[in-house]
Design brief:
Helix content is 82%, strand content 0%.
């Protein structure tokens, strides 16, 4: 039998995974929303996916996505 604690634990990890993926994909979304060229959007997306695990890589992708 599945307990309420088990269900809450699974929901907690699902929500944490969704938040993590959302944070990693923010630079790609900003690049598309700011009307960046396809090259800059791809650079932001690849930088975020490849180096998003490090804070500096994520900041680099965010910089590429938001520069004017």
């Amino acid at each position: 039998m599945i307990s309420l604690n088990g269900i809450l634990l699974v929901l907690k990890y699902i929500i944490a995974a969704i938040i993590f993926v959302g944070i990693v994909l923010i630079p790609a979304y900003l690049a598309a929303a700011n009307g960046r060229s396809k090259y800059d959007s791809m650079r932001a997306r690849m930088g975020s996916l490849m180096f998003g695990w490090s804070f500096l890589g994520w900041l680099f992708a965010l910089f590429i996505a938001s520069k004017k």
